[in-house]
Design goal:
181 residues; four-stranded mixed beta sheet
């Protein structure tokens, strides 16, 4: 297992599950049905092409094998704006392919910053990860998880409040545990 995958697995376990940022992440993590795909491309176009291939491959896998996926780009897309460009293009390709009813993309990046927020706002860490990555989510699985959750709209508000309460030092200390693997 490469360092980037080990760091990502640690981040999922310690941050996403440990802080309960996504209450739906524990089941696929424990079932080992998260597909971790590493993309060593550096150039934006090469990352995009590999991501499109991964979307097609992922869609063909049975959910019990790959309920959800993380497409990790440890060497490319370091610039957050370039990352967002590739995300936008991939989202358009997903829609053009007709797969948007089956899959959805979520975004994570080490420099993630929500529009209108300061870069040092702890709330940005709801979408900050050790490496640029794209989260491939099966629509059916997400719908089932949301149907069983009493108030899914409260999840982002709870996460923002928790991370702001932890503060940057607390969050970075937790992340350092995974990045130094």
């Amino acid at each position: 297992m490469t360092d980037a995958i080990a760091q990502t697995r640690c981040w999922v376990k310690e941050v996403v599950i440990g802080l309960n940022l996504c209450p739906f992440a524990r089941a696929p993590f424990e079932a080992e049905s998260i597909r971790y795909q590493l993309c060593n491309a550096v150039e934006d176009d090469a990352v995009y092409a590999a991501l499109i291939r991964e979307l097609a491959d992922f869609a063909q896998l049975p959910p019990q094998e790959a309920e959800t996926g993380l497409f990790i780009v440890p060497q490319g897309l370091r610039d957050f704006d370039h990352y967002l460009d590739v995300l936008e293009d991939a989202q358009a390709a997903l829609e053009a392919s007709g797969l948007e009813d089956m899959l959805q993309l979520a975004s994570f990046h080490p420099d993630y910053c929500f529009e209108g927020m300061e870069t040092d706002d702890p709330a940005n860490y709801t979408n900050r990860s050790p490496h640029p990555m794209f989260h491939l989510i099966r629509q059916d699985g997400l719908a089932a998880a949301l149907a069983g959750w009493p108030d899914p709209e409260s999840i982002p508000r709870r996460n923002v409040a928790l991370l702001r309460e932890m503060g940057l030092d607390g969050i970075r200390k937790l992340l350092d545990k995974c990045v130094k693997l």
